[in-house]
Specification:
The protein has 126 residues and is an alpha+beta fold. It is 28% helix and 37% strand. Strands 2-1-3-4 form a 4-stranded antiparallel sheet.
Length: 126
């Protein structure tokens, strides 16, 4: 998720870090989620928000289907932390949303995520 979107909702993370989860790939339909994929690595943004802020954020109808799962997140400095990763059940990832995929590509590019991952996001636009 983009920090700007959280700010619009009045949520200001205590910390924002880049990270990745092993064994997952990004899947983009009308919405996006991480899906298990043995030899993959999915990158994103780890934001330190309160449990109450996360519950309020995911109570919104547009993201209410996302469920928190505990994951070990690798940070770009090599450390690992435990975090809640909100994912959408694969059965709910349907259709296509090129505009949303483009916004994810723009974010991945702006954050200077690894080029191979940026390319995967680029391909998901079509």
């Amino acid at each position: 998720m983009d920090e700007t979107l959280l700010a619009i909702k009045g949520i200001r993370p205590a910390e924002v870090l880049l990270g990745y989860v092993e064994g997952y790939a990004l899947r983009i339909g009308q919405r996006a989620t991480l899906v298990r994929c043995a030899d993959s690595r999915a990158y994103g943004v780890l934001m330190d928000i309160t449990v109450q802020e996360a519950e309020a954020l995911y109570a919104d109808e547009s993201v209410a289907d996302y469920l928190p799962e505990p994951e070990t997140v690798g940070l770009m400095d090599g450390t690992r932390v435990e975090a809640a990763c909100y994912t959408l059940p694969v059965s709910k990832v349907t259709g296509r949303n090129s505009r949303y995929a483009q916004s994810l590509l723009d974010l991945a590019t702006r954050l200077h995520l690894p080029e191979a991952y940026v390319e995967q996001t680029r391909l998901a636009r079509h």
